[in-house]
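Hey,

The postdoc asked me to send both predictions to you directly instead of through the lab channel. I've kept everything plain text so nothing gets mangled by the mail client. Protein one:
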Amino acid sequence: MNIYGGGDDLSFTINNSDTAGVQSFSASGANDQLVTSGSTLDLSHTTVSGFRVVSTNAQGTTFTVSDLGTAFQIAGGPGQDTMVAQGFTFTADQRDTIFKTSSIEQIVDGSGAYRKPGLPITIYTTLSDPSAYMGTYASSLSDNGSVVGYYMDSNDAYHSFIYCNAAYTTLDDPSVGIQPRQQWIIARAINASGETAGYYSDSMGVHGFIYSNGIYSTLDDPLAGTQIYQDTYASAINASGQVAGYFRAGLGNLNKAISGVSA
């Protein structure tokens, strides 16, 4: 089937089911368009001329094309749109033209994947501490790219870590308890200097800590007390080494606190 549009301002809504049965869309009028709301539109067996192909999908649409003429008809839309060239490769000038005349953010062909110049590049890095037995959990990211978090080992004990320059450093405050269910340390925050704040448990309860240059400093808010359910939790640290957190002066009694301690 071939579809021809002979008027101005024509607009047809299409999807993959429609294009599967159409060999070509062509138009000779002004401002004619084919509109899709789908996350994909397969035009690999369909040619388009005269129509601009528009997406209304807010997340973006992946357009698959098999000829250069159809590729130049893709306009894209408000989302992050991708064009996939099937069976041919764009030249650098052709890619540049598509990026300049459409809202396509990424082009993929036989020579690789290309992002529209000037767009931010998002890179995902999976963190999996080699000492972890059941999960690695990231808590905070510093301005220089260091990550702190925690993991569980095979003995159900929690340890914290710093991930920097693709290497893991385990944090185990020497004051952490050694009895079952008392052995855990949770790193919650890190600043650009590598100073880390968090909290750990021992037989008496929960204490905040700062880790800096290999030295652990315990934080116990004087208003919290030292009896059961009287705990201190450090949860943030700024560039000056000031720590924010909260303490518990008794069961169900939570209070915010700011410490001026700088490790």
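Protein two:
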Amino acid sequence: MVIRADNPWSSMAMKPPPRLDAPGLKALAKAASPQKCQCALGPCAGWESMTEDRWPGPYMTAAGSLRAQGAEGENAAGSEPTFEEFHPHGTRYDSPLAPFAPQFFPCNRSDVFSCNRCQRVLLRYTEFGGYYVDHRVRALNGDLVVDAPLPDAAA
């Protein structure tokens, strides 16, 4: 087993969280009762950088994963998840109105957490650059979850 620092489920002692799809993500959002939180996360309406020291790990519970369930770094079909984004209404990656499309980047590389303090549901993934690692977080808005198929799957 390969242990990767970006994958919180890579420890053999931890069972991977359930794989979520769009209906599962909507159900989590519907079941949540978010409250105003005073933690370091802030609103996180769009994808925001979140340093490890600001991430309130002790208050987070793994709720699921949108990551592909294949070999390490691959989706179930055996290829790497797409970096294509889904913005049918002209939104951008960091927009609070951008859809949550589990098949598309960055959702397809995200893990889902529930905050024990404010009851929010949060998506978190790690952006890797040439010389940096950047954790990104976004609070789930169930009204923006869409079940959009990848272009290849529609053909």
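Summary for protein two, as requested: The mean pLDDT is 84.

Thanks,
C.
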